Each structure stands twice: as C-alpha cells, then as structure tokens.
Protein: DNA methylase N-4/N-6 domain-containing protein
Amino acid sequence: MNQYYAIEDSFPIVEINRLAIPERNAFKPIYQMHKWFARRASCVFRAILLGCMKPLALDENGKPLKSGAEVIMEEFYKDHTNDPDTKGKVILDPFMGGGTTVVEALRLGCKVIGIDLNPVAWFIVKTEIEPVDIDELKASFDRLAERKVAWSGKSVKETLLEQYKTECPCCGAGREEAEIIYTFWVKSAICTNPLCKKEVPLFSDYVIAMKSPSIR
Structure:
C-alpha cells in the first residue's frame, strides 16, 4: 500500500491563517536580521513541511483515521528535532529567497539544501542559520562601540546615542532630555489656504500616553 501523507488529504487553512495574521505584523527575530521582499509567514511553511512528512494512519479500508488538517495541527507545536518522520529528511528549496523554508525545515530536524542566484539572499540565509560564538560577537560589538569617530572625536556609542535624545514634552524645552525609544513617521500635507501654503503635519498629538512612574 502506498504511503499517504497529511497534505494529500487536507490542509488547516483557517487555523494557519489565524496564526499568520499576527505574525505578518511581528516577524520572529531570526527573520528580522535583514529586510527581504515578500517575506512569507513561517507558520505556513512549518505546516506545509509537516503535512508533506507526516503520514496518515489508515483503517482496514484504507480510509484516514484522522484528516490531514487534524494531524498537521496536532503536530504543529511539538518538538520534532528527533522525530523519525522529519529527522534527516532532505528538503530542497531551489528559490530560497529570505530562507523561510530553510529555517523552518532545520527546526524540524531536516537536512536542507537552499539555492538562490541572488548573492544577497545567500548571505542573509547563511547569516540566519550559521552558528555564532556569542562571546566573540559581544567582544566585537564592544570594540566597535568604543571606536573613535573622526568627525565627532567621540566613540561610536556616544555619537549614535546623541542622535536619540529629544526634549521632554512634560518638562519643557531645554529643561530635561529624554531618550527616544521609538520614532513615528508622520505624514504631512500642504495647507489648502492660498494665504498659508504651509506644510502641516497630519498628527494631532505627539504624546502617545501619559503614565505615572511605577516600581514593581
């Protein structure tokens, strides 16, 4: 009897869509190492890979005991690094792009071959998956942070941090500096009044929230 796999029966489109929507707004850190165009949601690729490797159990009549969609969702959150159904399986992506297939297949314990003509894609994926010596990385970061900048005469760290200061909206101009945590892109438009014609920011208030300091 031929082996029957989950994806050949059905796919949990609704369930995976529920996971993909929030992921599209906040990709996992590994996929934020570098911009890649049309980056795909990792949950979709994980589900597809599992569906292609997870066999369906059949009854005596050759009918699946569970639907493919059920099997995929049952296996979705499990650790598959030592799963005999996935470990050591060879996955080829001849157009790997940003490497979603490569990363997700490695998480399932597969052996992966990724190919792309674009050298940027190759470098991004290589950086995503190759082992990193954390101590060496931290030491390199510290050396870079303390390197002197010719035009400022200060370290790289000091020069960059100076660009992330602003006037506190509560204390008033010149009274106290505040660190910039996040920068909002504010669109603007030209005033339609012919006597004005000034550029007007389309933003009602730059204060997002007012909270009292709390200590826990």
About this structure: The chain is about 35% helix and 10% strand. The mean pLDDT is 89.
